[in-house]
Amino acid sequence: MTLAAVLCCAMTTTVFTACGGDGDNSTTPEEHSGNTPAYVEMTFYMWGTQDMLDITDMTVTYNDGTGDKTETVTTVDWVKTVKAALPVSFKFERKVTLKEGVTLSDDQTYSYINRYYYNYKILSANGTVLNYYESSAKSTKPAPSNVKGSIVNESITSGRMNISRAFDFYKDGSCPQTAFPDKE
After folding, report:
1. How confident is the model at residue 12 (pLDDT cuts 50, 70, 90)?
2. Which residues of 106-115 are buried (b: 16+ CB within 10 A; e: fewer)?
């Protein structure tokens, strides 16, 4: 056999092998080995103050990979951990409105925190942590701002107290939304 014939056979075998299969290249997490990303586990923190609970209604809508869920914030700090198989998209969104009948006074100061923090782990199917990431915000709760009622009211009515973040995790565990510093 000539060299050209051998090379032709080798290239044909490679093409048919690479293109073979049933067209479904997806795998389930159970098929992954110890070093292959299979899951993401994310924890998201939204900090608040007692004044925020007293004068506002806060709801958080989040998507844990199975659909949107909404919770009313009833504690000063809201924390949620979600885990799902890769690929997946997570969303966290806090809406803040002034409670009905509440009037804020400039004679009084109110404390509030409009910050959040998150971290995530990329896990193999057996639970080994392959990658860990945390936002540039400190993982410790920041000190609250103490401001006059009119400033708090403007922050609420303008939507500046609302927080919204979305994360798309690809099959390889990468997340383009964390490739750049947070805009907090």
Report:
1. very low
2. eeeebebbbb
Q: Measuring CA to CA, how many Å separate 150 from each of 90, 101, 106, 145, 161?
A: 34, 15, 6, 14, 14
Asked if the model's pLDDT at residue 17 lies above 50, the reply is: no
DSSP annotation of 153 reads H
Question: CA quadruple 136, 138, 141, 145: dihedral positive or negative?
Answer: negative
Cα gap 139→153, rounded to integer Å: 27
For 132, other C-beta atoms within 10 Å of its C-beta total 10
CA distance linking residue 41 with residue 145, whole number of Å: 31
Give residues with Cβ within 8 angstroms of 59, minimum separation 6: 70, 71, 72, 73, 94, 95
> Which one, of 164, 167, 161, 163, lies nearest residue 180 by Cα?
167
| Contacts for 89 with CB less than 8 Å, ≥ 6 apart | 63, 65, 166, 167, 168, 169
For residue 16, what is the enclosing H or E element? helix 3-19
pLDDT digits (tens, 9 = 90+) for 56-97: 999 999 998 889 999 999 999 999 999 999 999 999 999 999
β-bridge partners, 72: 59
- Report pTM: 0.73
